[in-house]
Write a structure and sequence with these properties.
The complex is a heterodimer of chains A (about 300) and B (about 375).
Chain A lengths: L1 H4 L3 H31 L18 H7 L1 E5 L2 E5 L2 H32 L3 H16 L2 H12 L4 H8 L13 H26 L3 H8 L4 H29 L3 H7 L6 H9 L5 H25 L2 H6 L1
Antiparallel strand pairs in A: 1-2
Helix pairs in contact in A: 2-13, 3-13, 4-8, 4-10, 5-8, 6-11, 8-10, 8-11, 9-10, 12-13
Chain B lengths: L6 E11 L5 E12 L4 E5 L6 H9 L6 E6 L2 E2 L10 E4 L11 H11 L4 H14 L15 H13 L5 E5 L7 H18 L2 E6 L2 H7 L2 E6 L2 E6 L1 H6 L4 H6 L4 E11 L2 E6 L3 E6 L9 E6 L5 E2 L7 E12 L3 E7 L5 E7 L14 E6 L5 E3 L2
Helix pairs in contact in B: 2-3, 2-4, 3-4
The chains are: A mainly alpha (about 300), B alpha+beta (about 375).
Bound molecules: adenosine-5'-triphosphate and magnesium ion.
The site of magnesium ion has 2 residues of chain B, from helix 1.
């Protein structure tokens, strides 16, 4: 058995990679293949797919041109789903922007603390990971809802006369998503900021750069890999998020994730859900690839 | 303008709070005046406050009390980016995400110098540090010595009033270090900019500086010309830190004019010239350099002390003899090996006479 690997670099490499490759194959690629298969099938009456299997492109067509059969014939709207996809991307950009905006100073603050404090703060950032996402989102709901903490306090102080509408709208969804995904932004940026050699800021100041210019010209470019990692780590899951828009949006804010979720739930349209998932995946993948292609050589190498 | 110095430190104190909660005076009431165009060195052992002093001049650290004047202007509270000084950092602190050209041009860019003018001056600066044609390299693609020069160019291109250098040659190997010492000195003369140079290497300080400040535990013990510091050290620490020296403890027997007679218990009397006045019985320490002592060449009007050779160390150009006079008194004597014969002045265990003129030593009091 061992003789098989001895002295042969290719076989050794194969031997080393294969367990991991098998894992990925089994738990990532196989489910995807199943989804791909379902997306080309017709829906079953009670969920699942119709048997015998009929292969069709209908599910994909539906996404780019949604048609509903009406009394007067089929009613089609090519922008129904694309529009929802577009607004998901927009919300994801806004959320990513605020996550980075809030996360960078936090990461910076943490990195500049003494080791003991730094570890404590790190723990505080990580603890939410150990708490159920659903529970956290519901917790936020009790803070932001009409009879929630914020409104109660503001009303009692007499600052407002009617509760602020902070939920069941896009604002609530964005706040919920920023809150939920902030740790994903903080961690990679913290790693970058912590590695950053602060004496470079002194060098910049020494050469006449006021703090703001030193930040833009030296610190930000050098910590860019962390910012980009944060961008990808927040943007990609947020585009497809469904729990937060569901709870914080109360069904009034539609995102691509809630739409897909519904296909596997009440709508019982697995094939259409699968098709949308794959379309989302491909579009996000293309976006990320395009982003890395157009970003500088430097950041690509740093990733 | 008369009375205006490039840098003036007035009673500067810098206290740090140590992790244990104590208060550490890293720079302890230092007064210093640095003249225009001077090559001035801060010399002292590790932790004596050299870097802290430099950082206060640069503006990275604010003094606890006292004032720092740059060209006669009070600057101790002015932020770093507004001070007319530039620094060459020990680890160079070059910007790794910029090319050599962008690094050197950074200071000019901040001053709002236009692109064309900037390119011209960057090219000149590269010429000056003898690295033309390196403009488009990344700093990671340079050797330590080259990075050092780029750091120098990046600072000098701004034509600062004062250039601050914190052990700029510390990371280089010995040979390159010696080369760069000469180059730096030449460069300083050419550009005529005041240099404040931090080092813990006494030889480096002696060869390069116009004046030296010797520091220990946050205090400036002596400020003076290299030969002053070497020949007339102010105290035991300076004498010991700068070059090699011998200490002989004794007490004053008497003084006639400038000649002081000292009793060295167990090895006799010594006469030493001094301009100061001593009282009878006052404890003093004679300090005298090994090369000022001679073996078996008694001086008629000098000091001749009898001792026994304990060790002989051959060092190539010199031979060093360890000679013991008494329980408490021991010296090292350096003899040049000018001829072959001198190698055999004395052997271990020989009785010898160690001589020195009365003008050679210095008298130190506590
Ligand atoms: N930020 C700081 N906080 C606390 N103590 C400090 C700080 N910076 C320096 N010190 C202390 O102040 C003293 C002087 O430090 P400084 O760096 O000036 O020494 P130095 O003469 O440059 O030594 P070296 O030759 O090792 O570089 C040291 O005891 C050091 O531990
Ligand atoms: Mg230092």
């Amino acid at each position: 058995m061992l003789n098989f690997f001895r002295g042969n670099k290719k076989r050794q490499l194969f031997g080393l990679i294969s367990p991991g490759a098998l894992w990925i194959l089994l738990f990532f690629n196989l489910p995807l293949l199943i989804m791909l298969f379902i997306s080309f099938a017709e829906r079953g009456r009670t969920g699942g797919i119709a048997s015998p299997v009929v292969y069709t492109l209908e599910n994909y067509k539906q996404f780019f041109n949604a048609c509903v059969s009406q009394y007067a014939g089929p009613q089609c709207d090519p922008f129904l789903y694309l529009g929802i996809f577009g607004s998901s991307v927009r919300i994801a950009f806004v959320v990513t922007f605020f996550c980075i905006l809030a996360g960078y100073p936090l990461a910076y603050f943490m990195a500049r603390q003494k080791p003991l404090w730094r570890d404590t703060l790190m723990l505080l950032v990580i603890i939410p990971f150990w708490t159920n996402f659903l529970v956290r989102t519901y917790a936020l709901k009790t803070v932001m809802s009409g009879e929630g903490l914020i409104n109660t306090i503001l009303m009692n102080l007499g600052l407002i006369s009617a509760p602020l509408e902070m939920m069941f709208n896009e604002f609530g969804v964005i706040v919920g998503l920023v809150y939920g995904y902030l740790p994903f932004a903080v961690l990679p940026m913290y790693t970058s900021v912590e590695k950053f050699d602060h004496s470079l800021m002194e060098a910049a100041a020494d050469l006449g750069a006021p703090p703001s210019r030193a930040f833009w010209r030296v610190m930000l470019p050098m910590t860019m890999p962390g910012v980009i990692a944060a961008l990808v780590l927040v943007f990609v899951p947020v585009v497809g998020a469904f729990i937060t828009p569901d709870i914080m949006g109360g069904g009034k804010v539609e995102m691509i994730g809630t739409l897909i979720n519904r296909q596997f739930g009440v709508a019982r349209n697995w094939p259409f859900g699968s098709a949308m998932s794959l379309i989302l995946m491909v579009l996000v993948l293309l976006g990320v690839i395009y982003y890395f292609r157009s970003s500088s050589e430097e950041t690509r190498r740093a990733m | 303008m008369a009375g205006e110095f490039a840098i003036e430190m007035k009673d500067v104190l810098k206290q740090f709070v140590t992790p244990e909660g104590g208060i550490l005076p890293a720079v302890d009431h230092v007064d210093m005046q640095i003249q225009d165009g001077e090559f001035f060195s801060l010399l002292g052992p590790s932790g004596c406050g050299k870097t802290t002093s430099l950082r206060m001049i640069a503006g990275f650290e604010l003094p606890t009390s006292g004032s720092i004047l740059i060209r006669g202007k009070e600057m101790s509270q002015v932020p770093a980016h507004l001070r007319p000084v530039n620094t060459v950092f020990q680890q160079y602190a070059l910007f790794p995400h910029m090319t050599v050209e962008q690094n050197i041009g950074f200071g000019l860019e901040m001053k709002g110098v236009g692109k064309a003018e900037r390119a011209k001056r960057v090219a000149e600066a590269l010429e000056m540090v003898r690295l033309p044609g390196m403009a488009l390299r990344r700093t990671k693609q340079l050797s330590g010595g080259q990075q050092q020069r780029i750091a120098l160019a990046r600072a000098l291109v701004n034509k600062p009033e004062v250039l601050l250098l914190d052990e700029p040659l510390g990371a280089l190997d010995l040979k390159l270090r010696k080369e760069m010492q000469l180059e730096l000195k030449t460069l300083q003369r050419e550009v005529g900019i005041t240099f404040i140079y931090v080092t813990h290497d006494q030889e480096e300080a002696l060869t390069m500086s116009d004046r030296i400040a010797v520091m220990n535990k946050g205090r400036a013990l002596q400020v003076g010309l290299p030969e002053e510091i070497y020949e007339r050290p102010a105290d035991k620490f300076v004498a010991d830190f700068i070059g090699e020296t011998n200490f002989l403890d004794g007490s004053v027997l008497g003084q006639s004019g400038s000649t002081v007679e000292i009793d060295l218990p167990g090895c006799g009397l010594a006469r030493v010239e001094s301009s100061r006045t001593f009282t009878r019985g006052q404890p003093v320490t004679i300090t005298v350099r090994p090369e000022r002592l001679h073996l078996n060449e008694p001086f008629e009007n000098g000091n001749n002390l009898k001792g026994r050779v304990e060790e002989v160390i051959y060092i190539g150009t010199d031979t060093q003899y360890g000679v013991r006079f008494s329980e408490r008194h021991k010296v090292r004597v350096r003899e040049q090996n000018a001829t072959q014969a001198q190698k055999e002045i004395a052997r271990r265990g020989d009785e010898v006479i160690v001589s020195f003129t009365s003008a050679s030593p210095r008298l130190l009091t506590e």
